[in-house]
Amino acid sequence: MIGFLAFLSCIGLICAETPLNYGVHNERVIGGNDAAPGVWTWQISLQQNLYDDGLFYHICGGSLIDASHILTAAHCINADADRYRVVAGDYNLYEYEGSEQFIGVKSIHIHPDWNGDLRLGNDIAIMTLSESVYDNGFVSLGNLPNHDEALSHGFPCYITGWGRMDDKGSVPAILQEAIIPVVEHSVCSQSDWWGSIALENMVCAGGDGVVSGCQGDSGGPLNCFSEGFWRVHGVVSYGPSGSCNQLTKPTVFTRVSTFHDWIFSA
User: Residues 9, 123, 233, 257: which is the catalytic one?
Assistant: First the structure.
């Protein structure tokens, strides 16, 4: 995977001892702003017990697609299901606010064509929760796009997550959001963009050198308002090595609409 970097990274890991043994990486969306509370209510924090110390650490994002299933990136998964938990209804990773639901993971379904090489795509996984989430006013389900639905060049979407803000590893606590326009495949696959590793089952967004996803955003959603609903059109997959917000190197997402059949059969 020379030349680009999976967004799952444990560099700069820190732990904050807060209620319910809650930890966090020091990473967030680059070029973003604090999201308003209660907006991106399908966004979850995927956390892992990395050190057998009873603490869970934010490693990736994800989207709640029904009461007991999470959509995330396959490259986020490197351990058995019992090493993970999902936090729904979260906003500030450093504070217990009473809106959170902490739920274990029962099983993990990784796309059968995922082989660990981001360039070949299929970077998508579904986690089945050990119990269903409930509507507490801070949690809702993410809508999926229609089968094979594609967005036009420049279509404005939002990337959300707790990923890294800059190369210095600034430490945020609050969920970040940023407008990030779609880059159509015919552009993203040009040689001075991502070239041949931008596949049609991926969707690119950004590439302006300002806004991008970064380490810690993996698995999180590309949120686009289409046909009257906010829909999860992408799952954060990869970006450039070095600085995440590079010109003509947009954030690359797994294109959810091309995995419709697998998602509903997993």
Answer: 123
